[in-house]
Design brief:
about 350 residues, mainly beta, Jelly Rolls, 2 domains, 5 helices, about 35% strand
Length: about 350
């Protein structure tokens, strides 16, 4: 099959996809070290023709090996916390023939776009094949309820473990050890991966502000009512300070799940949040990048809190260059706290979908 190689050295197959899922008999069985609801006893087979790091992928081709299935959305910050574990297992257990396979199940419309997906993956360390389950067919056949979800298959394809919380990943790796010892009782295995939890501060703080959808249906935009939806209107920021709520200034179009800036006058999105790291998900793919400025506590971002996607102009203003609908890392505070964030579009017509916040971990 002819492939195209991107600048990120990712093998990109032609944009055509045949997805066939063969579903065996479902057996009601609670699976995994942390329990779970009923799942198929044998993993449903599937073939995906559109993949990253592979031309195509058929699950049953790997049934002779232990398999880790990593259900994720490549653009969802909540899935990022699972990345270090899957990257570690992919490298550490390769000699033991453990196969790690990602299944991209987009939760956001923007992540159904090929340029957005490969750009998001290229910004990570994920080096294993990822099947693109754009319509969530595999997601539904496996009865997945949330992302990320990890499933462990022993040789032959029987599902023996699952995990969806970071606190469960160590137990999940212990299950990998059990499968490998069942194959070779005397195998010498490495210690389970234990990601740095953030030192003595970890766990001392309340949960961060929940992610905010920047649309009307979320109820988060405080100075917008139902009569405003679907049209460009001028908003005046009332100066509110309620945590986790959004206040608009300037001309914006508020839709059910989307917020769009109209170029031509000063505008901003303002939110008071609690947390440590902040990510912003735009909703567009453009021919060229547009600039969006970011401020915290009424000042440009300090050098010690710059997110990895922030740049600084000649006037020391801090900004994001936005082109693809991928999560952009706005800032990383040195410690958990409550702050006021302001997103300030400067050019072009740009749309925003979500703000994500992370705690002290």
């Amino acid at each position: 099959m002819k492939t195209i190689t991107s600048v990120w050295n990712i093998a990109i197959p032609p944009i055509s996809r045949v997805l066939a899922v063969v579903v065996p008999i479902l057996v009601a069985a609670a699976i995994g070290p942390t329990g779970g609801h009923a799942r198929p006893e044998i993993a449903p087979d599937f073939t995906v023709r559109e993949c990253i790091k592979a031309d195509s992928l058929t699950l049953s081709d790997f049934f002779e090996f232990p398999i880790v299935l990593f259900f994720l959305d490549a653009g969802d910050v909540a899935c990022f916390k699972a990345h270090p574990y899957t990257v570690n297992w992919h490298a550490k257990y390769a000699a033991d023939d453990v196969r790690v396979i990602g299944i991209h199940c987009p939760a956001y419309e923007a992540m159904k776009s090929w340029p957005n997906v490969i750009t998001a993956v290229a910004r990570t360390e994920l080096a294993f094949p990822i099947a693109l389950d754009y319509e969530r067919d595999i997601y539904r056949d496996y009865e997945i309820e949330r992302l990320p979800t990890l499933l462990l298959l022993e040789p032959g394809g029987r599902i023996v473990a699952q995990a969806s919380e970071e606190t469960d990943y160590r137990s999940f790796e212990n299950e990998i050890h059990k499968v490998l010892r069942a194959i070779e009782p005397d195998v010498v295995l490495p210690f389970p991966f234990d990601r740095d939890k953030g030192g003595p501060e970890a766990g001392k703080f309340p949960a961060p502000t929940p992610k905010i959808n920047l649309g009307y249906l979320s109820g988060a935009i405080m100075n917008c009512d139902s009569t405003d939806v679907g049209e460009f209107r001028r908003y005046t920021d009332p100066g509110g300070k309620e945590r986790g709520k959004v206040y608009l200034e300037g001309r914006w179009k508020v839709e059910d799940r989307l917020l769009t800036y109209e170029e031509g006058e000063a505008a901003h999105i303002r939110v008071v949040y609690s947390g440590k790291d902040v990510w912003l998900l735009p909703n567009f793919a453009l021919d060229q990048a547009v600039r969006v400025y970011a401020e915290q506590d009424r000042a440009a971002l300090r050098l010690d809190i710059l997110g990895r996607d922030i740049r600084t102009d000649l006037e020391a203003r801090t900004f994001l260059n936005m082109r693809y609908a991928i999560p952009l890392h706005v800032l990383s505070n040195p410690a958990y706290g409550t702050h006021e964030l302001k997103i300030i579009p400067a050019e072009g017509v740009v749309s925003f979908e979500y703000l994500f916040f992370e705690g002290a971990k």
